[in-house]
Amino acid sequence: MSYLLNHPADFADEMVDGFVAANRDLVRRVEGGVARRAGTPAGQVAVVVGGGSGHYPAFAGLVGRGLAHGAAMGNVFASPSAQQVHSVASAVASDAGVLLTYGNYAGDVLNFDQAQERLLADGVPCRTVTVTDDISSAEGGERHRRRGVAGDLVVFRAAAWAAEQGRSLDEVWTLADRANERTRTLGVAFSGCTLPGADGPLFTVPHGRMAVGMGIHGEPGIEETAMPTADELAELLVERILAAAPDDADAVATDGEHRAAVILNGLGSVKSEELFVCYRRVASLLERAGVTPVEPEVGELVTSFEMAGVSLTLCWLDEELEAAWTSPAETPAYRRGRFGGGDRGVTDLPDRSVEPVAPVRPGAVAATEESRRAAAAVVGLLRAVEGVVDRHADELGRLDAVAGDGDHGIGMRRGSAAAADAAQEAADAGAGAGATLLAAGDGWADRAGGTSGALWGVALRAVGEELGDHRAPDAAAVSAGMERAADAIVRLGKAAVGDKTMVDAVVPFVEELRARVAEGVPLADAWTSAAQVATRAAEATAGLVPRLGRARPHAGRSLGTPDPGAVSFALATTAVAAGLTSSPGRDE
User: Domain check: are 293 and 439 in the same one?
Assistant: First the structure.
């Protein structure tokens, strides 16, 4: 558990501030994360990595020469928002473009993809490599579904080396993609981890047992076994990873000898001395199998707070990948070799903290008096959502921890509070209902991060775009706005009814709202009826198994438990229903 913190909601931001203060010679603070203190040379592709906080030294600790140019940093166990990724990438981009690379998680993919679209629209060449090294999260035939764990380091190193060689964006992408295709990881855990401020761990492992296939966000393992000895664990890890070797492993062998980058990673509570005991056996088993470890890494490379666990990573090397793996690097948490000439990079940039820039300045938007009155009502409804989320955040986290990473309640709490604050600021500045909702959507997405943050962000923006700032919103306009929101959620999240996501509550809600409004039912009554339908639909997700997201690899575990995204949507719409019912203009 975390012993040193002030307020849980501020933990990630304060951690970044302290990290930068401790490493001013190597990194600087930029909006959304950190960047190399020395800027990107002209003509060099910038490698931007990122993910949720709570995994140090990934991802900020890997920013520096020979590794990443910048890292976008989300909240604890939550992906960075699209705005954060875009801001970091923009801060380090050169004329050669940007390579985005990160672990394959739904929230990260969603937000990094949005950021890539924005970079391309800005005229910045951009490509992406998602890391998919975890063999426990999908079968070999579905490698694109596998999540990224400690193998991130191998891919980041390959991309950075190619960039340092002055290769083009396509060439950097090609080598990073090849590193990913050749990398395999398997992890185990002996106990869970506790998020800052939480009362208990995300998950537990029975005493004397070991969870095999554990994810770095606390995703449950695929099986459970008796606690092994160090040698027995080494045998399990080596055997399963070798069995999952890439198809072209033999093609890169020389006289039957394979050369491999090897990482024995501690997830937080397993210390170096224990890792060395285990690696002793790992090394002998690999050599017996004809695999020569090349400059192995034994230590903490990707962690999960105080989780007691270990992962083993192998990347089957060819000549170029070995050159990348063994090349010099100088970052706050990862140093290898020395750069020639003592040159630490290009012109030093000033170290400065960047204040968050509000993406919407609605005070400048003309609005009618009717729309401004509606904006005040929007603020009240968003405060009601903030309140209900705050009361149920722990429950939402427990639902999410059944087969996911347990951060849904924390993300919803941060997002709803940020949305209400942004809406308040907009309304106070004279914005209408539309601009107030646009500000709320941007605030929610940027502060919450993760999948739910992005989806709630686009939903609020969709409603705001429909309502505009020049009319008093009526029932038909609100219904049309919610239809646009549902379309945006489905399009962005790529989910359908039955996938066990928030869509299972969103679609029935919108259908009921549209039907009641078409009958001429007042908005408050139509919304209340729709919220009741959403609540029943959310409860019914207990009978479904997930087909998307982090919960998918452990689908059976969530059977009997409702989807947290659907539940939070039902709670939010119910809170809005209560607000509409009690408002003076409820019959409009």
Answer: no
Chain CA centroid to CA 317, Å? 28
Chain segment 455-513, per-residue pLDDT in tens: 999 999 999 999 999 988 999 999 999 999 999 999 998 899 999 999 999 999 999 99
Q: What is the domain range of residue 399?
A: 362-582
Instruction: Give alpha helix (H) positions in 165-246.
Output: 169-181, 230-243
Q: Is the pLDDT of residue 38 over 80?
A: yes
In a domain, 353, yes or no: no
pLDDT at 64 over 80: yes
**Residue 102, domain member (yes or no):** yes
Instruction: Mark whether 81 and 206 lie in a shared domain.
Output: yes
Q: Does 273 share its domain with 124?
A: yes
* Residue 477 CB contacts under 8 Å (≥ 6 apart), including other chains: 466, 467, 471
- Residues linked to residue 447 through DSSP beta bridges, in sequence order: none
pTM for this model (two decimals): 0.84
| Residues 75 and 52 sit within 8 Å (Cβ to Cβ) | yes
Tell me, yes or no, whether 561 lies in a domain: yes
| CATH number, residue 320 | 3.40.50.10440
What local confidence, expressed as pLDDT, does residue 2 receive?
Answer: 73
- pLDDT given at position 555: 53
Which of 319, 335, 351 is where one domain is finished?
335
Looking at the structure of the chain, the number of domains it has is 2
Query: CA–CA separation, 430 vs 133, rounded Å?
Result: 50
User: How far is it, in rounded angstroms, from Cα 317 to Cα 388?
Assistant: 52
Give, in order, the Cα–Cα distances in Å from 222 to each of 158, 213, 225, 449, 552: 30, 5, 10, 27, 11
pLDDT tens, residue by residue, 346-404: 444 544 333 333 444 444 458 999 999 999 999 999 999 999 999 999 899 888 888 66
From the list 37, 11, 9, 32, the residue with the least C-alpha distance to 22 is 37
Instruction: Kindly report, residue by residue over 194-251, the tens digit of the pLDDT.
Output: 888 887 887 788 999 999 998 888 777 789 999 999 999 999 999 999 999 999 888 8
Q: What is the CATH number of the domain that holds 483?
A: 1.25.40.340
Catalytic residues: 217
Pairing state of beta strands 27-30 and 126-131? unpaired
Shared domain for 322 and 369, answered yes or no, is: no
Residue at 193: amino acid letter:
C
Count Cβ atoms within 10 A of the Cβ of residue 556 and give its class: 0-12 exposed, 13-18 middle, 19 or more buried: exposed
Please report whether residue 449 resides in a domain.
Answer: yes
Same domain, 23 and 138: yes
486 and 578 belong to one structural domain: yes
